[in-house]
Amino acid sequence: MGSLKLKYEPLVTASLAKQIAEKIRASITDGTLKVDDQLPTEAELAKQFQVSRPTIREALKRLAAQSLIRSRRGPAGGTFVNRPSYEEVSSNLTTATALLVSLGEFEVPEVLEARHELEVTCARLATKRNSKVELDVMAEEIETQKNSALSDVEFCASDVRFHRAMADAAHNPVLRFVMFAVIEALQPIQNMVVFRFRERKEIVKQHEKMLAALKARDTDAAIAAVTEQTDYLRERFDAAQKWKRQSTA
Fold first, then answer.
1. pTM for this predicted structure
2. Per-residue model confidence (pLDDT) at position 8
3. What is the set of domains in the chain, with CATH numbers?
């Protein structure tokens, strides 16, 4: 009789550093390792995981890139669990979101739909909770956008700042965090896709409607203005796609 042939999955060796980083990360997220706790030395970790020190070093680099650990030199030095700042975490999320868009994981119509739903929630809360600080920022950005000498990149940046201010006006830190990822990562891409096909004056008018609604604390008007802009951008995107198909035909 012939020997029985069995199929085994190949052993994972190429991603040891990734696996180790994920295990340490899990210990941080589940509370086993707390902020300011000191990690074992590279030599100790290498012994625990039964790998080389360069592999441990690579794993720690991965965690440092996520702002989950920090290193300190000197007699009291070592590697410690870090408390990432809001900006660091937001930046990582923004970068990851932008990467997924560039790789085609998210389509622009899906981006517009997600942005609309999130921004409607922001608008509803912002009409009740806004302060003069956010309204002044929005008004300032509208004045900036009226400058005809503004480049497309500068206009896009001002557009981002305007919508960030409206997210700020909702005064919900969780919603603000999620919206920043959407605005920072997706809106510039969305804007640059359609900038040739949109009228700046239309965007400015829509922004003015949003600001007026927030000042009047008119929820229905704020939602209507957000919806108007989303529909306009969706229409402009369709026009851009049509032009692209015709120009490559």
1. 0.70
2. 44
3. 16-81 (1.10.10.10), 87-248 (1.20.120.530)
